[in-house]
């Protein structure tokens, strides 16, 4: 049994691997109640599980008010820069150019978050063009919601963007979300080297994650949880007990995402 598995069975925080949650949120959600959704409560859970860092976007930003929500995300990172990095949410209906101009150079933000399903706008639409121009120019990773069969962010939408913007790093959030979606996400990632699979969701398993790693590589698969929308412990356990080698598991749990977040240093910023 590995060190990290032993820590889980002994119910103590693991310290063997730097874990980075690539897909987290913070704050209340308008459609249903999420208990203890603030960053302080999130940090307590992260500490219990040995999660070093999380990349967050506020629920307010992805759903109702990108400008105010991005300001909230920036404040969360200001208060705890060692624990959080921000995802800058771009809503295509709420001044995407202005939000990128306001926050694009702010080091509190390490990625961009898109949610076409919530925004009722296709990932391939022209209103997202400023995002792809920024990603092409800087190397900033873009996390987009992806869901098999969606009219807005299905895997064909994601792959079309990867074809149009081969220099961009695109994280397919939920990796398509369903068993068929996982197949399509793997096939798209095999064809498009800029596409990275992020593994949070309610329908995948450790075996699915291990297959993603086998078929696309550890530099193309990252751990995310959707915390606190989904409890990070469920997503974390699937990776820890997926049967991956210790080296591969460390890459998925944090090594690959840590590298992706260093794009500002590669620009000399």
From TrEMBL:
Recorded hits in Pfam families, A to Z, give: Amidohydro_2 (PF04909)
> Which ranges carry the Amidohydrolase-related domain?
20-256
Q: Which InterPro entries match?
A: ACMSD, Amidohydro-rel, Metal_Hydrolase
Q: Does the keyword Lyase apply?
A: yes
Domain of life the protein comes from: Bacteria
Would the keyword Ion transport be found if you checked this record's keyword annotation?
A: no
Report the SUPFAM superfamilies cross-referenced here: Metallo-dependent hydrolases
- Keywords from the UniProt entry: Lyase
PANTHER family assigned to the protein according to its UniProt record, in alphabetical order: 2-AMINO-3-CARBOXYLMUCONATE-6-SEMIALDEHYDE DECARBOXYLASE, ISO-OROTATE DECARBOXYLASE (EUROFUNG)
Q: What is the protein's name according to its record? A: Amidohydrolase family protein
Q: Which organism is it from?
A: Nonomuraea typhae
Species lineage, top-down?
Bacteria, Bacillati, Actinomycetota, Actinomycetes, Streptosporangiales
